[in-house]
């Protein structure tokens, strides 16, 4: 068990051992989240600032709940409500948050590299809640925890990521984590959104949806990220859906025990049929629950707490981790 990092900016730079450490902690915290008590005040006295310059439902809310479950004080800042609107720079904004004695800065930004830029300039720990098309590390971890819940291991597990890969930070974090841990990743979508160059990341690239979903143990769907696309990557949304949407007919091509994932927000009727999103094979809302556990683990580790004493600490508080 090891973790010596001040920040969590990406998965690309993490070792398999660091990945396993965070996942082990998240498995313990999941028991806390699912217990009636939920509250394990290991971060009492700490202050967490949620600084989201792009919209978010799941990430921002779950970081706030995670920090509160750990007993930390939480403040929330959005682009709209901050003095960024009055021309204050990103650097000045975060230096002011630091002057308010924040211990952790959770940030989402449209610019790839913004959390790294900030992490190099503040003493506070920085947790990347998604930066441009670069990475969304806690999403990668919560997706991985969902796979572990089902399979118990990553070795040889086949994961197909279907959709807009090119503009997706979720895809990149998933690819780095899953390939480092021994899963077999296939990327699928139109060639304009899934260029062959992704093979360099250790994945298979396929432009034939029927083949890509038939081999998968997990199909992880991604929405079309219009906010990052500079030009349309396909003629129309209808055309995208007819060629690459996960319809009920296509679900019948999947293995009988294959699982459907989506990081959210879902666009019903575009990348996924509404009935498919709600069917028994879908673990979309389990992913959201796992996000809470992963974010508790991330907050615990970047504040310098030891992974090796976590189980004992939680059991001493009366949580049943068996
Ligand atoms: N999956 C995800 O990042 O969702 P939000 O944009 O709602 O945080």
Any chance you could write out the topology, listing elements then pairs?
Layout: H1 16-34, E1 47-52, H2 58-69, E2 73-78, H3 90-99, E3 104-109, H4 114-119, E4 125-131, H5 137-151, E5 158-162, H6 169-180, E6 184-188, E7 204-206, H7 209-214, E8 218-221, H8 237-244, H9 248-251, E9 259-261, H10 274-277, H11 284-302, H12 310-316
The chain binds phosphoric acid mono(formamide)ester.
The site of phosphoric acid mono(formamide)ester has 10 residues, from α2.
CA radius of gyration is 19 Å
How are strands sequenced across the largest beta sheet? Answer: 7-6-5-8-9
What CATH calls the topology of the largest domain is Rossmann fold
Please report which band the strand proportion falls in: under 5%, 5-15%, 15-25%, 25-35%, 35-45% or over 45%: 5-15%
Q: Please provide the count of β strands.
A: 9
Hetero groups in this structure are: phosphoric acid mono(formamide)ester
Question: If classified by CATH, what would the architecture of the largest domain be?
Answer: 3-Layer(aba) Sandwich
Helix content: 25-40%
The rough form would be described as globular
H and E string = HEHEHEHEHEHEEHEHHEHHH
- Assembly context of the chains: single chain
Structurally, the number of domains stands at 2
- The CA-CA distance between the termini, in Å, is 19 Å
Low-confidence stretches: none
Give average pLDDT, whole number.
Answer: 96
Largest sheet: 5 strands, parallel
The CATH H-level homologous superfamily of the largest domain? Aspartate/ornithine carbamoyltransferase
CATH class category of the largest domain: Alpha Beta
Count helical runs: 12
SSE class: alpha/beta
């Amino acid at each position: 068990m090891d973790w010596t990092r001040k920040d969590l900016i990406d998965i690309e730079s993490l070792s398999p051992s660091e990945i396993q450490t965070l996942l082990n902690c998240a498995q313990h915290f999941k028991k806390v989240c699912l217990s009636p008590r939920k509250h394990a005040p290991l971060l009492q006295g700490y202050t967490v600032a949620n600084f989201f310059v792009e919209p978010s439902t799941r990430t921002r809310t779950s970081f706030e709940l995670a920090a509160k479950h750990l007993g930390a004080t939480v403040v929330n800042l959005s682009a709209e409500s901050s003095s960024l609107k009055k021309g204050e720079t990103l650097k000045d904004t975060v230096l002011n948050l630091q002057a308010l004695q924040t211990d952790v800065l959770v940030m989402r930004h449209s610019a790839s590299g913004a959390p790294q830029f900030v992490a190099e300039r503040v003493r506070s720990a920085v947790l990347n809640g998604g930066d441009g098309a670069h990475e969304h590390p806690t999403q990668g971890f919560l997706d991985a925890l969902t796979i572990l819940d089902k399979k118990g291991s990553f070795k040889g597990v086949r994961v197909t990521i279907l959709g807009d890969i090119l503009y997706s930070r979720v895809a990149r974090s998933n690819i780095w984590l899953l390939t480092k841990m021994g899963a077999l990743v296939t990327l699928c979508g139109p060639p304009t959104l899934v260029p062959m160059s992704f093979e360099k990341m250790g994945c298979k690239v396929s432009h034939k949806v029927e083949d890509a979903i038939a081999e998968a143990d997990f199909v992880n769907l991604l929405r079309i990220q219009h906010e990052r696309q500079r030009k349309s990557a396909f003629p129309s949304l209808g055309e995208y859906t007819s060629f690459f949407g996960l319809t009920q007919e296509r679900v019948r091509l999947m293995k009988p025990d294959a699982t459907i994932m989506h990081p959210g927000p879902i666009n019903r009727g575009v990348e996924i049929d509404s009935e498919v999103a709600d069917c028994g094979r879908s673990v979309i809302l389990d992913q959201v629950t796992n996000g809470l556990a992963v974010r508790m683990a991330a907050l615990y580790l970047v504040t310098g707490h030891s992974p090796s004493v976590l189980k004992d600490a939680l059991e001493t508080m009366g949580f049943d981790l068996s």
